[in-house]
Design a protein that fits this description.
18 strands; six-stranded antiparallel β-sheet; 15 helices; five-stranded antiparallel β-sheet; 26% helix; alpha+beta; 19% strand
Length: 661
């Protein structure tokens, strides 16, 4: 795929060089590379590798449905022009897959829940390509397709983004004169209205679940459904609200892309890779946002992966991030699952003369200047620095749970920080026990506590532009079993409670200052009669730095090779008041970004004192900092932070639990 560089146009696309020709070539390469793995009638595409958690029948259906997305977008944007014969090729698969007598038949919606997901992709492509595929199918095949989709009617769907799969399928059935239940659509729409949060964001259900699904699913399907149901008063009345939410969300979303094109490494299903580009194309199709900026974000994401080995030398998308790294997959992932990346090709459904393809690329926010953004819905303090192109998130609002719960921390949701240049530790012992980007109390055996279920106390922008956030949780340890499906969330189990932890963050540029206080926690006896833990050693973990080696320099910095102009050179934790130990721990094969990950940390040598504020400064940047921020106190409730650029901020810290505010 490196041959794509021959198409570069730096006049039209001064930041990425990418044009519609690059995107078309990427789609064609993926589609042609998939064909050798198809069954004789094309109904199943089963990619190499061990079967997924749902078995080979689901794997083959996923391979068909998800590559079908790319084929549909490709032909729709060309107005039916189809030199690769994509519609005929996939028409054969539709005929065999929906034929109950075929040895290649698909697993049905009433046989396995995953078929409900794939059915939505099939329905939306049949909508987008109707003149060139559906309208040309023999009546018998049309009847088979309707029969295959019909079990969606009245079926139970999880109350998350899956609800949209039912809505899309039934709306397609309605459009072709098939059976559908208006009540299903109305109930689904009402439920999804409840997902809406501040500033255009959607949560993936009732929990604090914020991740890439907010863009590649929850912003995607509302606009698509409104298009499918155009003319229906219910759709026409909702469309302005959907578009307004999308436009506001896109303001935040473009701030979450690094200068090297990396999306934020946070949340589940990261193996979908450049599906993260989807909301930018949705914005272009809906007329929301600036076309040159939207294409810059989308093309940057796709180029990031293409330049780093995805697809691989065989033209395939593997379980991983850049290259294959199976530990990144969840238990529902199979060899065909990564092809939901095809949603990121949605821009190809727009013709070559659309403004998103003809506008000159605009720089991303992180390429224009340093910025500080407060994303209130997910509770993120977002900092971007132009010098290194890195975007960082300090997390005081997302854990894929609810306040007061006591689950293990998912490394994909509950860490204190995520960035476009680092990955949380996703494999090895530190994936289950928080280390990187954490504040934890260590029990008698050295096991760190978890924070899932925290309460958000503060999200604010100070007059200087510095961002401030705070959260509080009761430290807890969870005796969770290793069994059960892994959907990327925290796990339940027998709980042992510990002290309360208050954390206040101040974020400016590449630095975060952490103020930490422990308060006594009353708790019942823990599992196996273990007594509640009143206090223990306090440890602060910093940014997990990808590294080619396990060597740790004296400055707690490492240099890693990088393409483009973005490179991470330094991750550092500077111990402040109360801490007397520090170090950096190398972790082998803990993330998909490099063979080693270096995690700086500081800690107390003995049990931490309750009622005392501890301070630490955490840095991630393109070069080693000259000096850290300085923290002083003006009485017990006001902290003063002097930043390296000379800015002085005053932070009011929260009262301890049970004390008047």
């Amino acid at each position: 795929m490196r041959s794509l560089r021959e198409f570069d146009d730096l006049r039209l696309s001064p930041h990425t060089g990418w044009t519609r020709q690059h995107w078309a070539a990427l789609a064609d390469h993926l589609l042609l590379s998939a064909r050798p793995h198809a069954s004789p009638s094309h109904a199943r595409i089963t990619f190499p590798g061990p079967p997924g958690g749902y078995g080979t029948d689901v794997d083959g259906l996923e391979g068909f449905a998800r590559t079908f997305l790319a084929a549909g977008f490709r032909v729709a944007g060309e107005g039916g022009r189809d030199p690769l014969g994509l519609m005929d090729w996939y028409a054969r698969g539709l005929a065999a897959g929906t034929d109950p007598r075929s040895p290649e038949r698909w697993v049905r919606l009433d046989e396995h829940g995953q078929a409900k997901v794939e059915a939505a992709s099939i329905a939306l492509v049949l909508h987008l390509t109707r003149p060139w595929l559906w309208d040309r199918l023999p009546p018998l095949v049309q009847e088979q397709v309707v029969d295959y989709l019909t079990p969606a009617i009245g079926s139970d769907y999880p109350p998350i983004n899956w609800v949209w799969f039912q809505i899309v399928v039934e709306q397609f059935l309605a459009s072709v004169g098939g059976p559908y239940a208006r009540g299903d659509i109305e109930r689904g729409l009402a439920l999804t209205d409840g997902f809406a949060r501040q500033d255009g964001w959607y949560a993936d259900g009732a929990e604090r679940a914020y991740d890439h699904y907010a863009g590649w699913a929850l912003q995607f399907y509302p606009l698509l459904w409104a298009e499918m149901a155009a003319g229906d008063p219910a759709a026409d009345s909702r469309l302005p609200g959907y578009r307004d939410r999308l436009e506001r969300y896109l303001h935040d979303a473009v701030h979450l892309v690094g200068a090297d094109g990396s999306p934020l490494v946070q949340g589940r299903s990261l193996i979908y890779r450049f599906a993260a580009a989807t909301p930018f194309w949705v914005g272009a199709r809906a007329g929301a946002g600036s076309p040159g900026l939207l294409r810059r974000a989308a093309s940057g994401i796709a180029r990031h992966f293409v330049d780093r080995g995805a697809p691989d030398e065989d033209g395939l998308l593997t379980l991983g991030w850049h290259g294959a790294w199976p530990a990144m997959a969840q238990s529902y992932s199979g060899p065909g699952s990564p092809y939901w990346a095809a949603k990121g090709l949605y821009g190809l459904s727009l013709p070559a003369d659309h403004p998103v393809w003809t506008a000159v690329e605009e720089p991303l926010p992180v390429e224009r200047d340093d910025f500080h953004l407060l994303a209130r819905a997910p509770g993120w303090l977002v900092s971007g620095t132009r010098a290194d192109g890195i975007v960082r998130v300090v997390n005081h609002g997302t854990d894929h749970s609810r306040p007061g719960s006591h689950l293990t921390d998912s490394p994909l949701y509950a860490r204190l920080g995520y960035s476009t240049a680092t990955s949380p530790l996703l494999a090895g012992p530190h994936a289950a026990d928080p280390f990187d980007q954490s504040v934890a109390v260590l029990d008698e055996d050295g096991r760190p506590s978890h924070r899932t279920g925290f309460e958000t106390l503060l999200l604010d922008r100070l007059p200087s532009g510095t961002l401030a956030g705070a959260s509080r949780w009761q430290a807890h340890w969870v005796a969770s079993g290793a069994g059960g499906p892994d959907h990327g969330y925290g796990r339940s189990g027998a709980v042992r409670l510990g002290p309360w932890i208050d954390l206040v963050s101040a974020v400016r540029g590449a630095w975060e200052v952490r103020l930490i206080r422990l308060s006594p926690g009353s708790a019942p006896e823990g599992p196996d009669g273990a007594a509640p833990l009143d206090a223990g050693r306090l440890r602060v973990g910093g940014w997990p730095l990808p590294s080619a080696t396990a060597t740790v320099a004296a400055t707690v910095a490492a240099t890693v090779a990088a393409t483009d102009s973005t490179a991470v050179a330094c991750s550092r934790v500077v111990a402040g008041a109360g801490f007397d130990r520090s170090g950096t721990t190398p972790v082998a094969d803990g993330s998909p970004l490099a063979p080693w990950t270096l995690v700086p940390w500081c800690a107390t040598g003995g049990p931490a004192r309750t009622g005392t504020w501890y301070t630490a400064s955490v840095h991630l940047g393109g070069q080693a900092p000259a000096e850290p921020p300085a923290v002083s106190w003006d009485g017990p409730a006001l902290a003063r932070v002097t930043w390296p650029d000379g800015t002085l901020d005053t932070l009011a810290v929260p009262a301890a639990p049970g004390e008047p505010g």
